[in-house]
Amino acid sequence: MTRTTLPAAVALAASTALLLTACGGGGSDSSDKIQSSATSTTATSTPTTTGSPTQAAGPGAPKFDLPSGITTDFKGFESSDPKKQAILTDAKYAALSILEFEAKVYAKETPNFKRFWTGERGAAFADSIIAQGKGGSVITGAYPYYKPVVKTIQGGNVSVQYCEDQRKAYAKDSKTGKVTVTKPSLSDFRSWTLLMTKSSSGEWTVFNHSWVQGAKQCQVA
Fold first, then answer.
1. Where are the alpha helices (DSSP H) in 6-81?
2. In 3-state terms, what secondary structure has residue 193?
3. pTM strictly above 0.85
4. What is the pLDDT of residues 72-96, one digit of tens each?
5. Mind listing the domains of the chain with CATH numbers?
6. pLDDT band with cut points at 50, 70 and 90 for residue 142
7. Does the first or last residue of the chain, that is N or C, have fewer Cβ atoms within 10 Å of its Cβ?
8. What is the rounded distance in angstroms from the CA atom of residue 60 to the CA atom of residue 8?
9. How far apart are the first and last CA of the chain?
């Protein structure tokens, strides 16, 4: 599936300069690999995933209202280093908050999305998801995430890069419930880069982001 939220070319244009500065050119984002969404109701496939994480573990952890048709699987989001684990956990919550937001039609930001996505970039992303829902398109299916890499950048902030496999992710008509499926391809593999900062509450929140659609480094069998 190709998500229609915040067209990738727009996301990249808004953040490439910052990412190159912040990550020392080490990121995998490349504009020649970006592909905009062909339709808002296409879908594709992925490997088997775990059950829908409607509630995360730990004190103060967010609860996610994911429909039963959505499953997720996070591989490699564990670390023996407490700081790195906190970053990976909040990056996971940020990813889950997107799925929760895209799974239903909302007129405003969900509390979880607002909690983990901040600033102008977060607001623009939220607007695109709201518009997608108003257009009648929501999501369903399986969403595996894997190969997370955490890097420290200037100002005490961090970048988190990870892969997403959308081969079994589907777009669904919110009114009819019809799911549209397309043939799996390289375009279903997406590389995300989140720039995160520590909030006053101690959580790591996303202040900028980009993605590459059709990321070869994320391709799995």
1. 8-23
2. strand
3. no
4. 999 999 999 999 999 999 999 999 9
5. 8-218 (3.10.450.50)
6. very high
7. C
8. 32
9. 16
Q: Is the pLDDT confidence value at 180 over 70? A: yes
Average pLDDT, the chain: 81
Integer Cα distance of 97 and 94 in angstroms: 5
| Band of pLDDT at residue 153, cut at 50, 70 and 90 | very high
Task: Tell me if 112 sits within 8 A of 122, measured CB to CB.
Answer: no
Alpha carbon 91 to its chain centroid, in Å, reads: 9
Q: Which residue, among 146, 149, 145, has the nearest Cα to 26 in the 3D structure? A: 149
Exposure string over 36-57, b if 16+ CB within 10 A, otherwise e: ebeebbbbbbbeebeebbeeee
